Amino acid sequence: MRCSYPCEVALDGEEAETTGREAYVASFPDVPPAITGGWSVQEVNSHLRDCLETALSFSIDSNEPLPEPSDPGPGQVLVAVSAPVAAQLALYEAMRAEGITPTEVARRIGMRPSHARRLTDIYRPAKPDEVERALAALGLQIVSEAAPLEQWLPSREPAPVI
To answer: For residue 100, what are the domain limits?
Structure first.
């Protein structure tokens, strides 16, 4: 499961016109509720991961499938979720695919059901070994990969109207 999504960042012309300050807006085409912004390149870059993870948590809260990430297009950068969150998202998707509940995962790995529900709650950090045990109970393992860090660099193109 790939947990990096393309992101578009552009100069926020409306904000610049209204306030006279340079501002930027960022959006994730594959994850519509993921929109953030900032007054500087550094500020926008610092918000991207949290914005993406928060928007993906809405899918979990609604018990909906996670959006499929597309390949980045021109001017887009890939933003990855953190490694612990990627493991939790993989577990969530595996549970959905098998149609099993946290209670069933708890039974398979010898854990209290209330504790197993936390394994896919990205705002309640789960112990990595517990997530790995749950994934193993579903026949999966975590495979890590390091990739170059992408940072968004400003463009003078105006932001698309959202």
So the answer is: 83-137
Here the CATH number for the domain that contains residue 42 is 3.30.160.250
Q: How many residues does the chain have?
A: 162
Q: How many domains does the chain have?
A: 2
Q: At what angle do helices 102-109 and 128-137 cross, to 10 degrees?
A: 90
Look-up of token digits 């021109």: 74
Distances (CA, A) of 124 to 7, 69, 75: 26, 24, 34
Do 92 and 70 fall into the same domain? Answer: no
pLDDT, one tens digit per residue, over 5-44 is: 999 998 888 887 888 888 999 999 999 999 999 988 889 9
pLDDT in tens, 113-125: 988 889 999 988 7
Q: Is the CB of residue 138 less than 8 Å from the CB of residue 95?
A: yes
Cα angle value 125/56/134 (rounded, 5°) = 45
